[in-house]
Specification:
By secondary structure, the protein is an alpha/beta fold. It has three domains: 9-158, GTP1/OBG domain (Spo0b-associated Gtp-binding Protein, Chain: A), CATH 2.70.210; 164-337, Rossmann fold (3-Layer(aba) Sandwich); 360-440, GMP Synthetase, Chain A, domain 3 (2-Layer Sandwich). The protein is built from 14 helices and 21 strands. Helix 5 links the parallel strand 14 and strand 15. Bound molecules: guanosine-5'-triphosphate and magnesium ion. Keywords: Cytoplasm, GTP-binding, Hydrolase, Magnesium, Metal-binding, Nucleotide-binding.
Length: 513
C-alpha cells in the first residue's frame, strides 16, 4: 500500500511541560553569612497549543508521531534567579479540525486560520524561598515544587471547510471539474476511485470567492461500506451546498443520470444531516456526443422534478461558467444568513476553571476527603521531605478554612484526611490547630539575627557610621562603595542552596533525622 500523504483522523497524546521547582537558597556575603532568602522561582512549563495554520492541510504529522510534549520550565536558582519558561509547543492543524476527548466529546471545533486551543496547560513553577518569605516566616527553609503539566489524549478529526461539495459516482468527473474551474490539480484518471482524499479548489465568480471540495466517489451501498464507504462525507458536512456531478456518457449497464442522482441522494440520506443543503445538478461530459444526447433527454425531467440542472463539460469548459455563478449565488446567500465567524484568534480552554467553593470536605470510608482545585494544587507543590514545607501546607489549608470545616463536620484528632484524586491522594493525620507557621519553623526560623536586623538596615547603619569620618570630598555613594571594597575584598555576593554542602549550617545529622 502506498504511504499515505493525507490523514484526516488521528489520536494524539499531548503533555505540557512541568513547572520548574523553586529553590531554597540563602544570600551570603563574606561578613554576612545570613543575608536573607534569595531562592528564585521555577519557570512555568510550556503549554501545548493547537493552532489552525494556513499551510497545513492534513493531520499526517500526528499520524507519524502521535505523542507530543512541551518543554519543562527550568528550576529557580539562588541570587533571586528565576528559572526560564518552558517554550509553548504550537501544533499546526488544518482548518476545520474537530478536537474530541477519548469519550468522543467535542472539545473544540477549530475553524479559521489562527484559531487556537490550549489543549494542555503547562505546570506552574514553584515559588522559591525568597517569594515565600513573609513577616512570620522571614527565611523559609523550603521552596515549592513545580507542578506537572496537564496531559491528555485527544482525537483530531478533520472536516474540511469548503463552501461547495462535489458528489458523484467514481469517474463522473468531479476532479476534472475542480481542475477546470480552479487551480487545484488533483489526479484525474479513467478508473474508479482515483481520488482517495479530498481536494480543495478556490473558485472565483465575479467578486465572490468560494472554496470547492472534491471528495472520493460514492457508489450504491457506500453506507454499508462498499467502495470507499461514506466516511469521507464528513468533508462535505460543512458545505453550504452540494453539486451532483453526473456522468452522461457512462457505458455501464443500469446507469443513467436519473437513477444515478437517485442513488447518490439515497446514500446521502443514509449518511444523514445533509438534507437541508441546497443542491445543483451538473450533467457532465456533454462534449461526448452520446453524453450530449442523454443530457438533452433527461434535462426536462430533472427540471420538472425541481432540480437546477447545468449541462457542462469539464474537459471543454462548456457550461461551467453558469454553474460557477449559480454556486456563488447560493454561497453568497448562505453567508448572509450565517455570517462567517469573525474572530479567529480564540483561545479556548476545554476545562472550566473551578468556579464554585474553594474546596469541599466529604466523608468516605478511607477518611475525610478534601476536594478542590486549591488544596490539590498545594499538595502537588509540597516537598514532603521538608517538614517546614509540610507546615506551610498546613497553614495554607487552615487559612482556606479546611481545618474549620473538618472540625465542623466532626473530624477528630487522628482521623485520616485525604487530599488528591481518588487514585493518588496524600493522607494526613488530622491534628487541629497545632501547625501554625511560627511553631513549625525549624532551626532556620530561630535565627534571630534575621529578625533583628534586615540586611538593608544593617548596611544603612554601617554607612551612617562611616559618614562621620569621611573625607571632605566623599559623597555618601563614595562611602558606600569604599565600605564594600574594604569589608568584602574580592568576594562578591553569593548564595548557597539550603541543605547543600555549601550551606554553613548543614551537617549530616540534620538530614538523616
Ligand atoms: N470527455 C470527457 N471526459 C471527462 C470529462 N470529465 C471527466 N472526464 C474523464 O472521466 C474520467 C474520470 O474523471 P475524474 O475527474 O478522475 O473523475 P472523478 O469523478 O474525480 O473520479 P473518482 O476520483 O474516481 O471518484 C477521466 O478519464 C476524465 O478525463 C468531460 O467533461 N468530458
Ligand atoms: Mg476524482
Amino acid at each position: 500500500m502506498a504511504v499515505p500523504t493525507f490523514v484526516d483522523r488521528v489520536t494524539l497524546h499531548v503533555e505540557a511541560g512541568r513547572g520548574g521547582h523553586g529553590v531554597a537558597s540563602v544570600h551570603r556575603e563574606k561578613f554576612k553569612p545570613l543575608g536573607g532568602p534569595d531562592g528564585g522561582n521555577g519557570g512555568p512549563g510550556g503549554s501545548v497549543i493547537l493552532r489552525v495554520e494556513p499551510d497545513v492541510s492534513t493531520l499526517i504529522d500526528y499520524h507519524h508521531s502521535p505523542k507530543r510534549k512541551a518543554p519543562n520550565g527550568a528550576g529557580g536558582a539562588g541570587d533571586h534567579r528565576n528559572g526560564a519558561h518552558g517554550a509553548d509547543m504550537i501544533l499546526g492543524v488544518p482548518d476545520g479540525t474537530v478536537v474530541t476527548d477519548m469519550q468522543g466529546n467535542v472539545l473544540a471545533d477549530m475553524i479559521g486560520v489562527g484559531a487556537e486551543l490550549v489543549i494542555a496547560q503547562g505546570g506552574r513553577g514553584g515559588l522559591g524561598n525568597a517569594a515565600l518569605a513573609s513577616a512570620k516566616r522571614k527565611a523559609p527553609g523550603f521552596a515549592l515544587l513545580g507542578e506537572e503539566g496537564e496531559s491528555i489524549e485527544i482525537g483530531l478529526e478533520l472536516k474540511v471547510v469548503a463552501d461547495i461539495g462535489l458528489v458523484g459516482y467514481p469517474s463522473a468527473g468531479k476532479s476534472s471539474l475542480i481542475a477546470s474551474i480552479s487551480r487545484a490539480r488533483p489526479k484525474i484518471a479513467n478508473y474508479p476511485f482515483t481520488t482517495l482524499v479530498p481536494n480543495l479548489g478556490v473558485v472565483r465568480a465575479g467578486d465572490t470567492v468560494i472554496t470547492v471540495a472534491d471528495v472520493p466517489g460514492l457508489i450504491e451501498g457506500a453506507a454499508d461500506g462498499r467502495g470507499l464507504g461514506h466516511d469521507f462525507l464528513r468533508h462535505i458536512e460543512r458545505c453550504a451546498a452540494l453539486v451532483h456531478v453526473i456522468d452522461t456518457a457512462s457505458i455501464e449497464p443500469g446507469r443513467n443520470p436519473i437513477d444515478d442522482l437517485a442513488a447518490m441522494e439515497n446514500e446521502l440520506a443514509r449518511y444523514g444531516g445533509l438534507e437541508d443543503r441546497p443542491r445543483l445538478v451538473a450533467l457532465n461530459k456533454i462534449d461526448v456526443p452520446d453524453g450530449s444526447d442523454i443530457a438533452d433527454m433527461v434535462i426536462e425531467e430533472l427540471r420538472e422534478a425541481g432540480h437546477r440542472v447545468f449541462p457542462i463539460s469539464a474537459v471543454s469548459g462548456a457550461g461551467t461558467k453558469e454553474l460557477i455563478y449559480a454556486m456563488a449565488e447560493i454561497v453568497k446567500e448562505s453567508r448572509v444568513e450565517k455570517p462567517k465567524v469573525a474572530p479567529t484568534r480564540i483561545v479556548l480552554r476545554p476545562w472550566a476553571i473551578d468556579g464554585g467553593a474553594d474546596f469541599e470536605v466529604v466523608r468516605s470510608p478511607e477518611g475525610w476527603r478534601v476536594r478542590g482545585e486549591k488544596p490539590m494544587r498545594w499538595v502537588r507543590q509540597t516537598d514532603f521531605s521538608n517538614e517546614e514545607a509540610v507546615g506551610y501546607l498546613a497553614d495554607r489549608l487552615t487559612r482556606l478554612g479546611v481545618e474549620a470545616e473538618l472540625l465542623r463536620q466532626g473530624a477528630e484528632e487522628g482521623d485520616a484526611v485525604l487530599i488528591g484524586t481518588e487514585a493518588n491522594s496524600v493522607v494526613f493525620d488530622f491534628k487541629p490547630s497545632i501547625e501554625s507557621g511560627a511553631e513549625m519553623l525549624g532551626r532556620r526560623g530561630e535565627d534571630e539575627r534575621l529578625r533583628d536586623e534586615r540586611p538593608s538596615a544593617h548596611r544603612r547603619r554601617e554607612i551612617a557610621e562611616a559618614m562621620d569620618e569621611r573625607d571632605e570630598s566623599e559623597t555618601r555613594a563614595d562611602v558606600a562603595r569604599r565600605l564594600d571594597r574594604e569589608m568584602r575584598p574580592g568576594v562578591g555576593p553569593m548564595s548557597y542552596v539550603i541543605g547543600s554542602e555549601d550551606d554553613p549550617d548543614w551537617n549530616e545529622s540534620d538530614t538523616t533525622k
